[in-house]
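Q: I'm a student working through a structural biology exercise. My instructor gave each of us a protein and asked us to get a predicted structure, then write a short paragraph describing it. Mine is Lactonase. I'm not confident about reading structure output yet, so if you can add a plain explanation after the tokens, that would really help. Here is the sequence I was given:
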Amino acid sequence: MKTLRLGLTLLWTLTLAACAGSSGSDPSPSPTPAPARFSYVLNSSDDSVSVFSIALDGSLAPLEVASVGGYAKSLLMDQNQEHLYVVNASDDTISQFQIGSDGKLQSLGIVATEEFPQSVQISPDGRFVYSLNLRSESITQYSKGSDGRLTALATTPHTAGPLSMLFSSQGQYAYVVNILDASISQYAVASNGALTPLVPDRVTSQGCPSGPITSHKTSQGEFIYVLSCSTDEVEVFAIGSDGTLQSRQVMTTESSPQGMTISGDHLYVANAFSSTVSVYETQTSGTLALKSTVAAGTSPETVTVDAAGKSAYVLDYIENQILQYHLGTDGSMTRTSAAPFSTGMTPVQMLLKR
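A: Happy to help. First, here is the predicted structure for Lactonase. I'll explain a few features afterward.
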């Protein structure tokens, strides 16, 4: 049975393999994007990225497998979908790639981080990338060049055990999930990307936040959602006018939620020990209402949604495969007749490119 990955360091309790959170949706209408054409799956046990092409029916076909560094933890794609970054925790590096028009990856080399990086996040304006370094208790800020290469600028001490990071939609605030004290740190973000703690500098979570974090905007404001795999819940926070967070709801999930994503007005949560995906509807108040629960393989790790292509994909961590679902206009998920698509060993994150 898969063990909880809440911490993965010799000195501290094991860290969950964090997934990169998806951006929240804007309440105003916007043009529907084109369906995804390629997907990228991070395989943590064989340190690789599996690249797939996506057909019109949402089915996947393997294109290539790209090697990355040791103990690959998380993926990040820039807003223009031209560059891909992979965090290599045991190597203390980030692998950098150019994404070709054919979807394949061309290496741009590596850039050093501080000790035991867990994830990276990019600022909404695309100018800066941040590495969350667990063992060295720090956040490293990089500038992103036009060629996609990163250049280290500054390092901010962060003593609570940083796992993952999320920006507010306009980029003026940043939030960091911490493993050591079950809290979320709050920062103001300057025009040069520098981080300054808000007052208070952190808020306590009612659970034990373990990495995944995502956001959503409604007519009533902006909200963030934080998973806790050890206490089986997702907590909803509202972002105040001064950037500070206020807890709005704690929603119980099924057993061991590992990953989540927002698509439209729905939040999808993969529950590893229950072998299910929970589908929640987001209310204008930011709170959640359970809509349905869907069977999802042996050990679902995360859910990736292509709303334009009307497909959702679930990574099965134990079976090393991707399950495809049809996505209804009401946010529902129905398993397609497609056979599972094989990945590398222990897939933990999947990104889509249009």
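A: Here are two points you could use in your paragraph. The mean pLDDT is 91. The CA atoms of residues 172 and 191 lie 8 Å apart. It's a good idea to check both against the output above yourself.
Q: Great, thank you!
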